[in-house]
Each structure stands twice: as C-alpha cells, then as structure tokens.
User: Which sequence fits this backbone?
C-alpha cells in the first residue's frame, strides 16, 4: 500500500508540475504591447490597433510625412512608417482579390509594414506589405501582395486569438489541467474514508509540490546571495587590512 501511495503521490505531483509549467509558458509567451512604445512588425501593430484603437506613434500619414520630411522615402529613412490613410473597399477589376471576400464592413484604413526598409528606401517605394483595419478597429487584415493585386489570397485575418495563439493554447491547457485536478482533489476528499490511500497520496503530492516551489524560489536567491557574500567579505578584509596598515605607519 505504501508503494502504491508513493507512486500515486508522484503522479499527482507531476500533474501539479505540468500545471505550473503551462501557467509559466502561457505568461512568458504572451505578446504584449504598450501605448508608450513604437512597433514595426505586423503582429505587434495589429495587437496595438486592437488594444488602443489607433496607430503607434511611429506612424505618420502621407501628408504629414511630406510636410515634415519632404518625401515618403526620407520619412522611411528617419524610422517612421506611413499609415492612417483611408482604404477603398470597392472591388477592382485589375485586382485578383478584394476585402469584400473577407468582411462585410465598408470603411477601412491602412498602414505600411516594411520587412525590408532599406529596399523600400533605395527604390523609393512603400512596398506591398500592409495592414488593413476596419474603422471601428474590430478587424485587422494582413496583405503582402498589395491587397490581392497579384495573387489569392490577398488578405489574411489577424484575430486577437491568432496573434497570441501559442500563449492562448497554453492558457487553454492550463484551464483543462486545473479543472481535471480540481475534480480529482474533490473526489479524493469525499472518498478519503473509503480509500484513504488516495487521500494520503494527494497530501503527500501537495507536500512534494510545496517543497519544490520553495526550492525553485530559494535556489536562484542562494546562487546570487553566495557570490555577493564572498565579494562583501573580501571587501571587508581589504578594508581591515588597509586600516591596519595605516595604524602601523
């Protein structure tokens, strides 16, 4: 019975460990944006649009770029992106795809993304990569072929979930594992008199997990504190030796 209880407790311990791992991965893989920062990648700009309902501060309209820098290429060279202009949602015969195949909305704006800024500057062009977003900031689309002018699909929908797909997957796994473990804990609690080995195994697993978390926190602290202590003792020793040498003089 002890061996069975021991093995069960370790199984539960590893389940707790998986839960902790899912939580850590969900938090660390999360892509976040701040209103005070500048962003250039399509994914980060799309998240920014969803979160703050306007473009980051490193975006200027074409008119602002020409007024401030004299030309779009000089604006790009200064580190700015062009964006905020109105995007026509009307279907064009010379384009192979159009936004109406993806959205029922009729009012959109656009902004430039420059995977190769140097090439755009040298060729004095804005390139073909854009984000097209609805005027109410509920839909954001990515296009790297100038709105479907050259090929299909012309647009790829960037949802909030897809922009953080990895993190969201870990959050889902975390929720599922938590639910399963909560059900197991309740089952073990209500059956503790009929099956005491199950309850004992759970208590032992919790004890293992608590000690593991404690060691996980304390070991990095010790790894930092020990070298600091050595350096501090050496500093005190040198100071004492200098003081003794002055006294002898």
Assistant:
């Amino acid at each position: 019975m002890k061996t069975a209880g021991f093995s069960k407790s370790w199984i539960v311990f590893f389940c707790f460990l998986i839960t902790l791992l899912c939580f850590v991965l969900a938090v660390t893989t999360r892509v976040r944006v701040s209103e005070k920062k500048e962003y250039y990648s399509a994914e980060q700009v799309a998240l920014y649009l969803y979160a703050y309902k306007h473009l980051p501060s490193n975006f200027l309209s074409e008119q602002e770029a020409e007024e401030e820098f004299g030309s779009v290429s000089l604006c790009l060279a200064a580190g700015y992106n062009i964006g905020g202009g109105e995007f026509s949602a009307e279907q064009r015969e010379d384009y192979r795809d159009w936004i109406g195949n993806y959205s029922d909305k009729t009012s959109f704006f656009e902004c430039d993304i420059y995977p190769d800024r140097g090439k755009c500057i040298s060729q004095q062009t804005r390139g073909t990569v854009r984000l097209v977003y609805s005027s109410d900031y509920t839909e954001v689309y990515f296009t790297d072929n100038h709105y479907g002018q050259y090929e299909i699909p012309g647009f790829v929908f960037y949802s909030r979930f897809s922009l953080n797909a990895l993190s969201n997957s870990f959050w889902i796994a975390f929720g599922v594992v938590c639910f399963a473990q909560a059900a197991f804990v309740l089952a073990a609690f209500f059956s503790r008199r009929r099956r005491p080995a199950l309850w004992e195994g759970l208590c032992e697993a919790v004890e293992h997990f608590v000690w593991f978390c404690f060691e996980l926190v304390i070991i990095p602290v010790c790894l930092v504190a020990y070298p600091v202590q050595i350096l501090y003792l050496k500093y005190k020793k040198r100071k004492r030796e200098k003081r003794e040498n002055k006294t002898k003089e």
